[in-house]
Amino acid sequence: MRSTKVISTVVIAAALIGPTGFHASAAVSDRDRPAKVSALKLLHHLRTAHERNAGYNRDKFADWLDRDGDGCDTRAEVLIDESLRRVRKGSGCYVRTGKWFSKDDGRVFKRASNLDIDHMVPLAEAWGSGAKTWKSATRARYSNDLGYPFSLIAVSASANRAKGDRDPAEWMPPRKQFHCQYAKEYTAVKFRWHLRVNSAERKKLRHTIKQCSDRRITRPHRAVIHHHKSGHGGGGHHGGRHCSPHYSGACIPIRNDVDCSEIPDRNFRVVDRDVYNLDGDHDGIACET
Predict the structure, then answer these.
(1) Which residues contact 100 (CB under 8 A, 6 or more apart)?
(2) Which strand (E) or helix (H) includes residue 80?
(3) Which of 39, 57, 72, 286 has the greatest CB tally within 10 Å of its CB?
(4) Cα–Cα distance for residue pair 61/137, rounded to 1 Å
(5) The dihedral sign for the CA sequence 131, 135, 139, 141
(6) Helix (H) or strand (E) holding 110
(7) What is the per-residue pLDDT across 98-114, written as a single tens digit (0 to 9) for each?
(8) Distance separating alpha carbons of residues 245 and 120, to the nearest angstrom
(9) CB pairs under 8 A, 24+ apart, for 116-119?
(10) Which of 217, 68, 231 is nearest to 149 (CA)?
């Protein structure tokens, strides 16, 4: 289940003027606060490529799952976590009422039936920018990602359906006050899942983030991606070869679904930004010993 939110007058007031999507008590010490990173830095690490949406079908991604076995599926988990007051549930963890602020359009709802759970990066967009080569289990993790607070958000059904499968170059939330945060969250989710951007998308994200008074975003942990045997690492990138500074033989192929223990020669320099899951501190050297 996603982290339990401490509800206070301050938290509720903050939500009503424009919540960021990360829930934390004001009593949390600086040491316990999540690390922040520049969204422009994350954007810099995203590959630019044309999208290839051929073959997309919603059924390629899993529906809502109960991944932690607590009786509540992903939709219920998000609704419970984002409600500004205790929710009322029916049988089977079906969430009926609570209080939610829809960041897309600034509306407040008390009935869960008026809300959709929005994938910050739509499923079709994810498919065309890398998920096409993923194994079905990886796509299931993506469509039920509760590990990062911005991957899934509760928004009004009307706003979510207006967005559809469009990226930020094609659609932005009707509430302009959310544009900055939306661009940062979208960029962070693409970075987390090793997804590409097209040139128009990159331009729009960069322009929007540059308008932000605070360009930082909660640092996302990189997801582990498993590809079909015919696929390649890095969200569909046809991988490069990465040489260790001390390696005297041929360069070794590095895929995103390998682990450092499988690599015979350590401390190689990363030349493909899509294998950053092997570079824990993002300093450009992977599998440091």
Answers:
(1) 79, 82, 83, 84, 108, 109, 110, 112, 115, 154
(2) helix 74-82
(3) 39
(4) 9
(5) negative
(6) strand 107-111
(7) 999 999 999 999 999 99
(8) 39
(9) 116/154, 116/155, 116/156, 116/157, 116/160, 116/161, 117/64, 117/74, 117/75, 117/78, 117/79, 117/152, 117/153, 117/154, 118/152, 118/153, 118/154, 118/155, 118/159, 118/160, 118/163, 119/143, 119/151, 119/152
(10) 217
* Tokens (6 digits) for 220: 């996302």
Kindly report the pTM of this predicted structure: 0.72
Tokens read off for 14: 């903050």
Question: How far is residue 13's CA from residue 26's CA, in Å, rounded to a whole number?
Answer: 13
142, 147, 152, 154: CA torsion to nearest 10: 150
Q: What percent of the chain has pLDDT over 90?
A: 64
Radius of gyration of the chain (CA): 20
Write the pLDDT tens digit of every residue in 190-247.
999 999 999 999 999 999 999 999 999 999 999 999 998 654 433 333 344 455 444 4
Residue 12 pLDDT class (50, 70, 90 cuts): very low
